[in-house]
From TrEMBL, chains A, B:
GO MF annotations, alphabetized: 3-isopropylmalate dehydrogenase activity; magnesium ion binding; NAD binding
Site for Important for catalysis, residues: Y137, K192
Keywords: Amino-acid biosynthesis, Branched-chain amino acid biosynthesis, Cytoplasm, Leucine biosynthesis, Magnesium, Manganese, Metal-binding, NAD, Oxidoreductase
Alphabetical list of Pfam families matching this protein: Iso_dh
Name of the protein: 3-isopropylmalate dehydrogenase
Family membership: Belongs to the isocitrate and isopropylmalate dehydrogenases family. LeuB type 1 subfamily.
Length: 357, 357
């Protein structure tokens, strides 16, 4: 059966890194139908909206979405509803992609790239499970209003609503517990239960779901402490599960611990295992079109796609082994280049992965 | 004129570290009236409430509050309103302590303590200005409700409200711009304006206040990126200003970059320069009563108190110089001890600071 993949390259370095991942997918002899469509700033420029109807329809029909990156300074002055990021939020919401899996892995060959001491990060392998369709991201009511009374009567006030329903917490909890059960068996749920009602409720539901997973050890940590412990002793973590807002912050912090965010893939899944796969890094408009960006995070995202949405774990293994092999050969794009290794371009890195497949 | 200081030691290591700071204050020959009162778990144990009325009244009357730390596992199962942290939140709210100043400074002598590479953190000197009485910490409505309709109808839902009024943003902006003007002239405002209405409003007001400070260079950064950049290149920051929730996370992350959180003081000020001064670290119940905790963050908090609330900059300078001197002498409590330095107890560290004064 043909698997349908929507290819959304986006802005900045998006097109050139996605191109390499597409080459890798095509080389695998799988029955894939790849269809490209514009998204983000590129879609706004072409069609007046960052997530045009055709693109959204294609994404909905697809078994999986291979996504590059969106965003460019050019679009910074647009009203929020038309900015590139809205495409990301729109896709998540429309497809119900509630489970964001963000591995933070430090490849032994790249230990020097980290700003942390090698002994603190060598062998790092954390999985951050971030809830992606709830929380304060989509909560209503929100806006700017004028206060009628209280200490700031007459003032304008910006406001947003954070919330989580029990069903939303349960389903992300199951994803996280199952991931932890397949890994080292430890799950840390991060919240701010000492201050937030949403967090206390989150914690209560997590504890309830935990009873179904006796093989997983659940712990709880406040988000401020988690931000500290990630810096102090990141290897103490196995799987972290948290809400959309805290997950946004902590998954980026964890990614940066590795110093090689150009290597980190991500998956955003819904209940029917349809998924959006994208590198953890952004669109880097400053280096776009120069053939210097690192395509490996996108290539590894394609591997995650094969594993989670297309049931092709063996093809995913092949890609991951090929990436390991190019690293072992000493090939490095500019972002991870150091003395004693061979600097290659985006397309040369793609060539090397194809050869290693 | 006598300055009135409320001394609130709290829980865990609070009493022993505050004791050393009190010794230092008494040694300065200033006209200070120090009055002690229970707070946190200790107050709950003694009087049934973490912030008893007498303690609150004392704090309100005081020119400044010297605070230790609150929290102990013993109180974890209490309902939220009676838990030790409520004392912290209650004092902030009752006294209007909206401006939290959290320096993250790495003393050259302690560069090895960091989990980051020395070249990344040596000479680090960031000031995080966190708004402390607004945001989602106190926002209403909040609670747990049952949903009547929508995709999760019938579900329970936890919810909170994030908000900032213009006046709240303006006053913290002024504190931050003034601090930046006295330092290296750079202010980075951290928000999540690509997602939150509160943040877009925050950003708009920041830009407006910026026009009064042409000598300060204002930049904006999303909170996820800030969490990354603090790890990647922390020395790129001078002053960071942000809301209560993001400030909670980022100030702890920044503190941990130094690896010596036992050295970091903090100040929480209101509009009349009344302030609460406390170490950035917590109550560490695991080492309480053992005379091993580091009292320097509390002693340096007393110095901040003299500078910001009691107009005694020269006395503050004396304390800070004395702390520098004990570090130069190689004296270290357990948390910052390393080979080649002399390990001392809490009270011995206090002795040494007194001697160096
Ligand atoms: C672009 C932005 C809306 C998005 C988010 O905050 O979720 C991004 O930071 C991410 O993490 O994918
Ligand atoms: C104890 C807790 C409520 C508090 C906060 O979140 O503000 C603490 O983490 C802090 O930063 O002082």
């Amino acid at each position: 059966m043909t698997s349908r993949i929507a290819v959304l390259p986006g802005d900045g370095i998006g097109p050139e890194i996605v191109e390499q991942a597409v080459r890798v997918l095509r080389a695998l002899d799988l029955d894939l139908e790849l269809t490209e469509a514009p998204v983000g700033g590129a879609a706004y420029a072409a069609k007046g909206h960052p997530l045009p109807e055709d693109t959204l329809a294609l994404a909905k029909r697809a078994d999986a979405i291979l996504f590059g990156a969106v965003g460019d300074w050019k679009y910074d002055s647009l009203e929020r509803a038309l900015r590139p990021e809205q495409a990301v939020l729109g896709l998540r919401k429309a497809l119900g992609l509630f489970a964001n899996l963000r591995p933070a892995i430090l490849y032994p060959e790249l230990a020097n790239a980290s700003s942390l001491k090698p002994e603190v990060v060598a062998g790092l392998d954390i999985l951050i499970v971030r809830e992606l369709t709830g929380d304060i991201y989509f909560g209503q009511p929100r806006g700017v209003r004028t206060l009628a009374d209280g200490p700031f009567a007459g003032d304008r006030q910006g406001y947003d609503t954070m919330h989580y329903a029990e069903t939303e917490i349960r389903r992300i909890a199951h994803v996280a517990f199952q991931a932890a059960a397949k890994r080292r068996g430890r799950l840390c749920s991060v919240d701010k239960a000492n201050v937030l009602e949403t967090s206390q409720f989150w914690r209560d539901v997590m504890m309830d779901v935990a009873r179904e997973y006796p093989q997983v050890e659940l712990s709880h940590m406040y988000v401020d402490n988690a931000a500290m412990q990630l810096v102090r002793e990141p290897k103490a973590f196995d799987v972290v599960v948290t809400g959309n807002l805290f997950g946004d912050i902590l998954s980026d912090e964890a990614a940066m611990l590795t110093g090689s965010i150009g290597m980190l893939p991500s998956a955003s899944l819904n209940a029917s295992r349809q998924g959006l796969y994208e590198p953890s890094h952004g669109s880097a408009p400053d280096i776009a079109g120069q053939n210097v960006a690192n395509p490996l995070a996108t290539i590894l995202s394609a591997a995650m796609m094969l594993r989670y949405s297309l049931d092709s774990a063996s093809a995913a293994d092949r890609i991951e082994a090929a990436v390991q092999s190019v690293l072992a050969q000493g090939l490095r794009t500019a972002d991870i280049h150091e003395a004693g290794t061979t600097r290659v371009s985006t397309s040369e890195m793609g060539d090397a992965v194809l050869k290693a497949l």
